[in-house]
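Aim 2 progress update. The chain analyzed this quarter is reproduced below.
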Amino acid sequence: MSGRNRIGALCAILLVESLISGCSAEVEPLRTVAAVDQPLPNDRGTVYARPANDEASLLGIALNDPHTRLFPRMSESSVKVSHGVVSVIRPNGESQWPWFPYQEFNRYEQREVAAGRAPLRLTATYEGKSRPVYWNWSLGFPAPGQPPSVTDEGNWDRAVNVGDERYVQWLVDNYVKPIMLHQYFTADGQAIDVDAPYPNEWLGIDQMAINYRLFGVLDDEGRWVPMDRGPVMDQPFRDGSAAMHDAYRHFFKQLHQALPGLRVMINMGTPDDWAAVPLDFADVDGLINEEVFWGKQPNGTVDDRAKLVATWTAISAFSNSGRLTVLGSLLTPSSSTYETALRSGLMAYLLLSGPNSAWAPKTPEAAEIPPSAYQAMKSALGRATSALSTQPDESSGGALFSRQTEHGTVYVNYTGHDVTVQCPSGLTCRDRAGTVVAELSIADLTGDYLLTSG
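Predicted structure tokens:
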């Protein structure tokens, strides 16, 4: 990337930081309409993972399938997130996750069209022909001009007009209440008929990347054409990225009005406009990031590093607004780099966590990393006592992140090179081995910490 582009990327990052922190008069600050009534009992979480030592009752939060037998074994004070999808639908999603009632939706849409009202699934015109609007990921991530690698059309997700209030009410009555929040089981795993959600049960929403380029059509040759490469939304659907962001904002607001008391947790993806994030999720109660630290990327590009800075800035602002945030890490205990990855994941969590956050580290086999593996580090550092500090690196597009805690300072290095941090003046510092040090060297793509005393 040229020097000019590097500067542009850094300026974009700084713009995101200023917008999210509320420094711009043109952007509405984060609202608190979705404030959590009851804090998490603890910051231990799981995301589609078996709790370590079968300790379901000790979890602060768990995100899982609505048919899970985990929820009835959790405490009443813990949060249970029943995870589904609402913005895109596919034929195969009725008999398996996300359990969306596809056939009933088809019948409803047909009745609406027969009554002279607009359809609910988006269509767009390209090369003179109206075509269905699909979600890129479900087609196998095809690049522009490439055909889908997923050949089973039953797995292809079509986009729904989430901003339509007819859809919101139908969704609540036919998906949210009967399927997502009313799948009840006894503690021994027997299905029972209870016309209510579990205590502190939330709705989880997957694939929440408000990104116009991830939607598109297929041309006559079956090749992928993103929405920003020529297709135009058919009437009465609004065209363009800004209209899509408006639709999602309206959706979240209407969802809370249609079902008062509902709590919503989104699985955050990469948006096409980072500056829009505060408003997009102003009426969202919780946020999840399944892989908070991309240490798996050995050679992060400038774009990758800039994206991480923007992502972490947004997550930090959200979590420190007091709303519920779950940060995940995928770790392999048998790996030679496991200890480094575990430490780095924990540092990332401590950097970004707020007063109502949870860490959810797990293995590729969907087993929770036991808290005993990291509790000593976590206890030694204590809770965060400052805001996230981001020092941009001009050459890489990344940054050095740091944050003070009750008993030290945590760091994550995403600069593209090793960095050395100094012990703060007037304090005595110890590294993780307990050795008194004046400075600490931190390798790229890793996290570490200093313990301090006056």
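Confidence is low (pLDDT under 50) at residues 1-34. The chain has eight helices and 26 strands. These observations will guide the mutagenesis experiments scheduled for the next reporting period.
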